[in-house]
Amino acid sequence: MNKNEIAFRKGFITCPDNGQDNKSEAALLQHMFLTFGYVMTEEAFNQVCKSDPAFIKEYHQEIEALLEDYIGTAKGKTLSEIVSDPTITGVTTSLLSWFDLIWSEDADVDTTPVEAIYNTKTFNQIKYFTEESFMGIFTSLAQINAALTPDDFATIEWFAKEYGDKNKMPDTIPFKENLCMMASIGLDVPVKTSTDVLRIAVYMSTGTSFINLPPKMIRLNAWSRELSINPRYVDAKFKKFNRKDRRIILALLDKVANPREMVLKRNRWIKLGEILHPGDYSSAYPRAFKAFDKLRNTDVKSWYSDVDAAFADSFEIGLSVLMGRPGEFGRRLDALLRNNPKNRGQVLLAFKECGGKISSKVLWELYTHFKQRDMPNQFRSVKIAGARAAVALPVLSAMSTDTVEEVLTTILEIFFSKFAAMESLGAVYIDEELKKIPLPTDMRTISSTLRVSVRGSRLPLEAGKKVLRTFVYWTAGVDLDLSMTFMNEGKDSQRIVCSYGNTRPAPFIKHSGDVIPHHEGEWREFIDITLKNNSYRYGILTVRNFRGTTLEDVGALVGFAEFDSENPGTGWLAKAVGNSFKVSAQGSNVVLLAIDFKTNEWILIDQDQAGIPAEIQNDSSAYLEYFIAEPKISVYDILKMHAEARGTHVTEIENSDLVFRFDDFCTSYEKVAGYML
Description:
Layout: H1 3-9, E1 12-13, H2 23-35, E2 38-40, H3 42-49, H4 53-71, H5 79-84, H6 95-103, H7 113-118, E3 124-128, H8 131-142, H9 150-163, H10 176-184, H11 194-206, H12 243-256, H13 259-262, H14 266-276, H15 286-297, H16 303-313, H17 315-322, H18 326-331, H19 333-339, H20 344-354, H21 360-371, E4 381-383, E5 390-392, H22 401-420, E6 426-430, E7 458-460, E8 467-474, E9 480-487, E10 496-498, E11 509-511, E12 516-517, E13 523-530, E14 538-545, H23 551-554, E15 557-563, E16 580-582, E17 589-596, E18 601-608, H24 614-617, H25 620-628, H26 635-646, E19 647-650, E20 658-660, H27 662-665, H28 669-675
Parallel strand pairs: 1-3, 2-3, 6-19, 6-20
Antiparallel strand pairs: 4-5, 7-18, 8-13, 8-15, 9-10, 9-14, 11-13, 12-13, 14-17, 15-16, 17-18
Helix pairs in contact: 2-3, 2-4, 10-11, 11-12, 12-15, 16-17, 20-22, 21-22, 22-26
């Protein structure tokens, strides 16, 4: 990973301005991008022209290799082939004239074809990035309130290595796993509590930030995501830290050491202290040393002991003490309402009073929890780090609709107040299609790909195509099998399955056959669907590895391509990168994506089959609801809240000062996360 790759993954190019005029090298670079389904914007192209030819050539080689790694080879593709390829529309052979013009500026050639590549959605745009904007990538990633993707973890590490203290650290890193990762590589992170430091020490020992590990892998509270069922993490011992790591941990603890907080995990802290030897560093980190000494030699009472004692006196006193820590109040809200029905009014009033001090992350989790509280239990589950299967959440006792609605309303009012304090947006138009993108609350689930999408997102297929080809492509020496299940709505809907063992289950479906060679060391399978004859509403794509290793380890590429011809041939469609992704699910049998043939959309799933409850797999209607129902909380919802709090929500685009477009958010989880605070 390097600077050029990082910028490209974010959809940008950054390049030096040497005041030169290297249109020929820039044109060759543009040609390469086009073969893979990308295009530099006019601004980016003009900036590249000003760069040194040596830089352009090096950049060309680096990014071409990156694209080939993700989507196979495109070597040998000429511009004529790109223009004539039926999978690319809106571009005519007159594009060749544009390239001719670059080398012969005096030629009398129509330059309007430039608009064809800049204005078509067929190509993913690469924009120009200034050096300042590039440096902002680090801060943007650091303050995301969700787990980062594997690629973004690597990006943070690169920035830490290349720029060190020059990176602008945010005042807070809201997501604990990200905090731990950044501390473990030596960054001076802004810790807030002693527990933050304990998480960091655990992470540096085990690779996970989970400190609440029940001995028999019993799940914690009903909506927490801070869980792990990987046996190697249960009661994990701290590693033997070297001096550098000891100093990192003790330096962080010295800022926030609090024995009353540390006593909650007294045994873990004492074991950690035996490894850290804080007495050896008592002069450098005196607060940390005193905290360990007090924990070992005095009877320290925790804040939670105070809460228990207060509730023992009276419910009112206990509630008052609990409000002193708004985040903890939020985490206990369901239990408070569930276990104290006679005190419902008091609890709700207290929540309204302290809710504004609860972190946005906890508030979103609360909102999601209460929004989904009345869902059938088989649909309520969490995907646990380190585990293949989703874990069903326990059945909760009933709660009145009025109570749930009041909680949800209160949370929205809190966010409204937070948004209202921000800069005005004026008149805002919001694309209705944004209702099809769920809020990205867990970035671990985002596939490592050049087009980043959130699981559950609905993304449009191109209209008017005759054939849809779904495919799997791989280079490792394994046997992957591609299959697709077709079904309609309804509990008793009949399913048909297309696979290597049943290549023509219907006249409009055709499987390529088992393990089709591509080039040396490359294999593929694909399924073609003739759309006009298709009689099914949905198609669900699955890939299985018969060797049993995870598809994530194989690095399989999965996606689809669309054709104008009913006989598209067997050519590898490398330039379909915009509609392909590497499998991230940790399983050997993975449900990858769904196609909604009626709405002409595809839905990203990328989930291990083992994590799907049996009662769902055996019920067609439940299966569809589980995977492809529109999200309960969408990007549209949060943007509408911003619009109403910071301006005016308008329904006519011509009357707007600001437009929230589907294309700007469908592959930019960072942008969405920014609006989630």
